[in-house]
Structures are given as C-alpha cells and as structure tokens.
C-alpha cells in the first residue's frame, strides 16, 4: 500500500504503449522486482485521485491468470501502476522474436485468457476491454497472465480522450458503437490467437516490407481507393513505425487507412486459422466461434471454457517452462 516512487530504482525500459511506458524497477526496501507503468494523465488532480481510488480494486484481483498488483501512486503529472514483472515479456514480443507460436502453446494461451476473463467478470464484473498479444504476458515459470484490464472507468475515459486509432482488435459491434460486453473480449482473443499462430497480424498482408500490390488486393475490402503515387520517404518511415507495432496499414504504395481497416472488420468475413488443415480442427473451430460477427451468436468466456479445444489444452502435457527456456 505504501509504495513510494523514491523506493523504486529504474532498471530497464520494457516497452512503450498507447498510454505511456513500462519500466522494470527494483523496490529497494524489499528487493522486489516490479514492472512500473507510467501513464500520463492530462486531467485535474481530482480526476487523478479518482483514478487512483478506482485502481485499488486491483488489490482484490487474485488469480493465477491475472498479473498481481503492488500498488499505484501519483507522480505528477503521471499515474504510476506497479505490477508483477513477467520476465519473458508479452506474446507479441515473443512471436516477433521466435516466429509463429506452436498451436499447443496457443491453446494454453487461449485457456489462460479465458480463465482470466472469467475470473474478472464472475468475481468482479470487470470486462477486460483490451485483449491483444501485448497484454498477455509470459514468464520463465511457464505462467501466462493477462494485464491492463479496464478497472478504472475514469482511466479509460482519460486515455480514450487522448488516444484513438490502433484499436484493431476491436469487434465489429464495438466499431459500430455498441456497448462493450465480455463477448467483445472474445472477438479480440480470436484475433490475437490467429496472430500468434500465424506470426502476423491477421488483417495485414502476409508478405514482408516489399509487399506486392496484387497480393494485398485480395485481402482487402473491394471498396479501397485507387492506388496512390509511390510512397514518399516520410510515408515509408511511418510505415516502418506501424509495422513495428504489428499493424500493417500500407502495402507497396497503397494506403489502408485506419478507417478502411475498421470498415473491413465490419463488412468482410472474419479472418480464420488458415490454411485449412494446417491446424487441428478443434483449434479452427474455436477461433471461428470467437470470431462470429454477431455478438448474440458468440459465446462468453465462461462458456468457451467448455469447448473441446480448451478441454484438450487443459490436459495437454506440453511443458511451458521448458518452452520458455528456449528463448
Ligand atoms: P502495449 O500493451 O500497448 O504494448 P503498454 O504500455 O501496456 O503498451 O506496455 C508496453 C510493453 O511493456 C508491453 O508490450 C510489454 O511487452 C511490456 N510490459 C508491460 N507490462 C509488463 C509486465 N508486467 N512485465 C513485463 N513486461 C511488461
Ligand atoms: Mg499493455
């Protein structure tokens, strides 16, 4: 509870995201290694205090599938959130380092995320709202846990006001303005699982940087604008940046704006685990049921825990600790 910034010694930068940055730190009095998330909040002190109060719920979130919370404090103009440090980082970082992730491991990821979502909703009535590979963390003990869930309505508001744009794990109904439900998280899980199994964001073009136009054409909405002139240097730099975030919005002189991507998600068939036959039928079926476009037809996390592929993943003997030691 009495976590103070003065007691934390910076060790290393872990990453930058939409809302701020994350550092590996040591809590010197106890020797505990933590991850400190620094979120810049452009709001009144009263709002900052309110956010801090709301974050305290995280103290009650105790599950093997949820990142532990050490505490939060204001360090003007930032809010610092201290949480369990996961030494193998997030799953996006892992697949970008080692390539597509074995489907058996992806099955364990699906199981852990569903358990985490079910715990958050059943026990605390919390909807995650930001399931994506960078919010699924892994450690050398072989544990898989989710982080960055929407506990603080006030924090969600403050960040949403400042940052828009990269919400590409967003479900069709959310894009169309419907309320968030646990089923929106299930959509995001489906997209994330394909990304891990294929080693690329499913809405992006499969070839690397010098993607050819015709290849890209097939995967995009027919309502794309005509080709643009060759990219300027500035555009190419931008493209690199986006690539590194795992979202490819451009291909060989073409631009797919964030708007077109959102339109694509709403209007086109959902992505699938392809090519057919490469993955177990049960895995294909699980992903398909996560990516049903109508939320009424989509199952809840709790219900999906009974899916045959999840059943299989529960008993699968794959040794995640051994797997973790390979990278
Ligand atoms: P995003 O999730 O959008 O990437 P964040 O600011 O939430 O942005 O996190 C930035 C990066 O920091 C993540 O991609 C992840 O690799 C790393 N990270 C976040 N939390 C932890 C943690 N508890 N332990 C280890 N690494 C973390
Ligand atoms: Mg995050």
Automatic annotation (TrEMBL):
Region forming the signal peptide: none
Q: Which GO terms fall under biological process for this protein?
A: MAPK cascade
Q: Which residues are in the Protein kinase domain?
A: 8-310
This protein's superkingdom? Eukaryota
Basic residues compositional bias: what residue ranges? 236-245
What does the entry list as the binding residues for ATP?
37
Region annotation (Disordered) ranges? 212-250
The GO molecular function terms of this record are: ATP binding; protein serine/threonine kinase activity; protein serine/threonine/tyrosine kinase activity
Keyword list, A-Z = ATP-binding, Kinase, Nucleotide-binding, Serine/threonine-protein kinase, Transferase
The Swiss-Prot or TrEMBL record describes its family as follows: Belongs to the protein kinase superfamily. STE Ser/Thr protein kinase family. MAP kinase kinase subfamily.
- Tell me what this protein is called: Protein kinase domain-containing protein
Q: Organism source for this protein?
A: Ceriporiopsis subvermispora (strain B) (White-rot fungus)
Q: Which residues of the full protein are shown?
A: 62 to 388 of 388
